[in-house]
Amino acid sequence: MMASRKSSSWANGAVGVLRKDLQLELRNKSVLGTLIVFVLNTMFLILVSAGRGDLEPRTEAALLWIVIFFTAALGLGRAFLSEKEQKTRLFLRIHTQPLMVYVGKLCYSFLTILCANVVSACIFLLLLGVEVTLPGLFILTLILGTLGLAGATTLLAAIIARTTRSGILLPVLMFPLLIPLLLAAVESTFYSFVGQSFAEGGWAASLGSLLTITSFSSVVIVASVLLFDYVWQD
Amino acid sequence: MRHKYKTVRLVIIIWMTLVLLGAFSFGGTWLNIPKVAMLEHTARNLYFHVPMWFTMMALTALSAVHAIQCLRTNSPVSDIRSRTAALIAVTFGILGLATGSVWAHYTWYEGTNIWWNFDPKQSMAAVQVLIYCAYFALRSALDDPRKRARIAAVYNLFAFATVPFLLYVLPRQLESLHPGAEGNPAFSDITDPIMRAVFYPAVLGFIGVGWLLYTQRVRLACALMTLRSIEEDNHF
User: What CA–CA distance (Å, rounded) separates A144 from A181?
Assistant: First the structure.
């Protein structure tokens, strides 16, 4: 009885943090709108400079994920900086436990970056004329990759909110850590593009990559949960 | 205590001198390394290039251990130890990359213009160096020493948690020319006993040199810290 009440109040806290962030976001639509404009611009740059339809599938997959990584680096750094700017950090620290804040922010980051990624994937596939042979695999890779990105970046966003020069620091901190995720996501996306032309079939070949992405996401999320207290408290 | 430290330091210096003598001595029958086509005398780089990695790995683990210690006890000395181990690890990492790049250019890629090929071991070391560069960039962006110690320790451990994925993912994605990789003979099968007689002491010796550099820098940083606190006491 006690335990269930405790866990429900814990979830309430996390949902509360998420709802606060979503409401703020819906009220002025600053982050998501800017991110989508950024994605549009980057895609246009790629289209103009790399041409249409004559790219290798692996290059296409790599380009897509590099755009996604930069979008995440720009958008997710905001997660904790906004608390600093609106001076709500102390309020959150008094009224919630660190883990609630982390989970709430993780969900918020995941939703934000998922929206931006869906937009960028749609534009990318339409404008570059990429054919996706295995749409299910492509969507799964996108969702799992987004989870890994959000999981790794939420802790780093909390870290950079504590620094003085936060602007350029997030890409520097996150890119070397995310190289395993990038490699696995690119490989899996590549298989979803070329699909059945491989004798063994796209799904079987990309199983290893999908497992890598999943385990990477869980490891970074567990590590973040363990380490978040130290960043959040003074 | 001080005498013990000096003795260990002296042992390491003498040990490394012997290793260097062994590494460069040729002629006669003693330590006359076998000539392998393509490798020739560059095989002696084995005594330098490979121990660099061992030392870097050891210092990386040391840095993570002291980061945990720093979070648990909040002690400034743990922070100094963690930071110094990272610095020396980067130094050995860069040396290992440089020796490996030059070695590969004149053997594996002889006749081509390649200095850098995305070999998994090479990429992993480069990523490790990049992570520590980010670590020091992060430190430079934090002003308050206590906050810097904690946040840097968090990043250090977070990065350490992702390293196993580099070990697992990179070899699957990239081809390797290093011994022991897929299809290549293992190190112990292709290395002459006479070379191993120098190689294993060289590994120990370079880890010793890493330890020496590390302890010297830790002592210097601790002395500076004490000096600063004495100065502050005199001011007020």
Answer: 10
Q: With a cut of 70, say whether residue B121 has pLDDT above it.
A: yes
Interface size, chain A vs chain B, as Cβ–Cβ contacts under 8 Å: 84
Number of domains in chain B: 1
Contact A176 B127 (CB under 8 A): yes
pLDDT per position as a tens digit, A29-80 = 777 888 888 888 888 888 888 766 677 888 888 989 999 998 888 888 777 8
pTM: 0.86
Residue labelled with tokens 């006669």? B28
- CB B161 to CB A223 under 8 A? yes
Q: Does B30 touch chain A (CB under 8 A)?
A: no
Would you call B165 an interface residue with chain A, using a CB distance cutoff of 8 Å? yes
Query: Is the distance from CB of A220 to CB of A148 less than 8 angstroms?
Result: yes
**Partner A contacted by B75 (CB < 8 A):** no
ipTM for this model: 0.86
Contact residues, chain A to chain B, C-beta under 8 Å: 152, 155-156, 159, 162-166, 169, 172-173, 175-177, 179-181, 183-184, 187, 208, 212, 215-216, 219-220, 223-224, 227, 230-231, 234
Closest-CA residue of B relative to A231 is B151
Residues 6+ apart with CB under 8 A from B113: none
Contacts of A48 (CB under 8 A, 6+ apart): none
CB contact (8 A) between residue B131 and residue A176: yes
Q: Domain containing B230 — which CATH number? A: 1.20.120
Best probe of the A interface among B165, B166, B170, B175, by most A CBs < 10 A, is B165
Structure tokens at B233: 């006491």
Helix (H, G, I), strand (E, B) or coil at A13: helix
Q: What's the rounded Cα separation, in Å, for the pair B84 and B87?
A: 5
Q: Is B131 in Cβ contact with A224 (below 8 Å)?
A: no
Per the structure, the complete domain to which residue B137 belongs is given by: 2-235
Burial of A200 (0-12, 13-18, 19+ CB in 10 A): exposed
The chain-wide mean pLDDT, for chain A, equals 83
- Of A128, A129, A146, nearest to A138 by C-alpha is A146
Tell me: the pLDDT tens digits for A170-227? 889 999 999 889 988 998 888 888 876 555 555 676 788 888 899 999 999 999 999 9
Among the listed residues A54, A49, A169, A154, the one whose alpha carbon sits nearest the alpha carbon of residue A110: A154
